[in-house]
Amino acid sequence: MNNDWAVMAECLRTEISEYGKLLTLIDDQHKLIFKGDPAEILRLNPSIQAQVEVLHACRGHREKAVRESSAARDEAPGRTMRSVLPLAAAEGGPSSPR
Q1: In this predicted structure, what is the pLDDT of residue 96?
Q2: First vs last Cα of the chain: how many Å apart?
Q3: CA 20 – CA 36 distance, rounded (Å)
Q4: Is residue 86's pLDDT more than 70?
Q5: How far lies 93's CA from each of 10, 48, 84, in Å?
Q6: 18 CB neighbour count, 10 Å cutoff
Q7: Within 10 A of 85 (CB to CB), how many other CB atoms are there?
Q8: CA 59, CA 56: separation in Å to the nearest integer?
Q9: Sign of the CA dihedral 10, 81, 26, 98?
Q10: The predicted structure's pLDDT at residue 5
Q11: Closest CA to 51 of 92, 20, 74, 12
């Protein structure tokens, strides 16, 4: 099971990192709005949309990892990351954030 936890933790780390990238882009957009630079705002919009798509893929990978881990433990499908986190320490998974 430790490998399952490692996979889920890595999926979560990647997703959080990608959220950080999105926040940076939104902050850049915010600055451009106040600067009054519509051409740069329009240039930035595809990057924001692409980052949102990356986040959707990350979420899909995380949800798949949770489903696969739940299936390996013969648990009911539909478990969420939040619902399996309390099991991590009990099964020897990561028990504290890095």
Answers
A1: 46
A2: 19
A3: 24
A4: no
A5: 12, 34, 11
A6: 18
A7: 16
A8: 5
A9: negative
A10: 84
A11: 20
Burial class of residue 91, CB neighbours in 10 A (0-12, 13-18, 19+): middle
pLDDT tens per residue across span 48-81: 999 999 999 999 999 998 888 877 777 777 777 7
CB 79 within 8 A of CB 4: no
Cα–Cα distances (Å) from 32 to 20, 22, 25, 51, 89, in that order, read 19, 15, 11, 18, 45
**For the chain, how many residues are written?**
98
Q: In this structure, what token pair is assigned to residue 42?
A: 């329009």
Q: Are 18 and 54 in contact (CB under 8 A)?
A: yes
Alpha-helix residue ranges (DSSP H) falling in 36-92: 38-72, 81-90
Q: Which of 7, 18, 12 has its CA nearest to residue 97? A: 12
What's the chain's Rg over C-alpha atoms?
18
Q: 23: which 2 tokens?
A: 């926040």
pTM (predicted TM-score): 0.77
